[in-house]
């Protein structure tokens, strides 16, 4: 026998509303954690294996599924551009630091040393610096142009001071970067690039 309407348990309603209102925040936080984990894993794996590294392995190391990776970064190019934008800034800054060196030869030698070292510490970045596959990516292309402009200034200063052979140009620097990328990729000796650098600097000094 029903003696009257039973009042609903209103104490549960506020907690339910609170839970629902928190959901968008939690979803955003989860999405940001996944993005950070993916970028960290991609930076490590591209650095170790190069730009052709397995995207499946990147997702596994990040602790997310492949669907999450492709939802955040639909293509390999999207992921590479996001991962390396910061490191391309380092490439741009190399020339800025070199131009602060008062002695032109020390500036050029220091620039080339730091550039080769930057390549040696990250195989993915080394490949990206000599690749033309991303010239249509506005962000990476703008950074590359800025870096090349800075390199030209470092070279012109050293040539003008008579300490660098006068026929050396930025195009020659690009060739040296490609050669260094090959040494890094193929040599079993991790410091082989240092020997190549020493030989290059000896040959590039004006006599």
TrEMBL record:
Q: Which InterPro entries match?
A: Homeodomain-like_sf (IPR009057), HTH-type_TetR-like_transc_reg (IPR050109), HTH_TetR (IPR001647), Tet_transcr_reg_TetR-rel_C_sf (IPR036271), TetR_SbtR-like_C (IPR049445)
* HTH tetR-type domain segment(s): 32-91
What keywords were assigned to this record? DNA-binding, Transcription, Transcription regulation
**What superkingdom heads the lineage?**
Bacteria
Which GO molecular function, any one, fits this protein according to its record?
transcription cis-regulatory region binding
What Pfam families does this protein's entry cite?
TetR_C_43, TetR_N
Residue ranges of DNA binding: 54-73
- Put simply, this protein is called TetR family transcriptional regulator
Source species: Paractinoplanes tereljensis
């Amino acid at each position: 026998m029903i003696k009257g309407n039973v009042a609903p348990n209103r104490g549960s309603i506020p907690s339910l509303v609170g839970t629902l209102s928190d959901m968008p925040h939690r979803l955003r936080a989860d999405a940001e954690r996944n993005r950070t984990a993916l970028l960290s894993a991609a930076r490590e794996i591209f650095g170790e294996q190069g730009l052709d590294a397995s995207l499946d392995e990147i997702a596994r190391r990040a602790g997310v599924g492949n669907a999450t990776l492709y939802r955040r970064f639909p293509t390999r190019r999207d992921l590479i551009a996001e991962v390396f934008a910061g490191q391309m800034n380092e490439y741009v800054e190399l020339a800025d630091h070199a131009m602060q060196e008062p002695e032109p030869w020390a500036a050029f030698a220091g620039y080339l040393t730091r550039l080769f070292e930057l390549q040696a510490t990250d195989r993915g970045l080394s490949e990206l610096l000599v690749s033309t596959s991303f010239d249509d990516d506005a962000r990476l292309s703008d950074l590359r142009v800025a870096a090349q402009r800075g390199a030209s200034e470092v070279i012109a200063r050293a040539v003008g001071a008579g300490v660098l052979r006068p026929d050396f140009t930025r195009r020659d620097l690009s060739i040296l970067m490609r050669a260094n990328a090959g040494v890094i990729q193929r040599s079993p000796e991790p410091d082989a690039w240092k020997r190549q650098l020493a030989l290059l600097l000896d040959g590039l000094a004006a006599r």
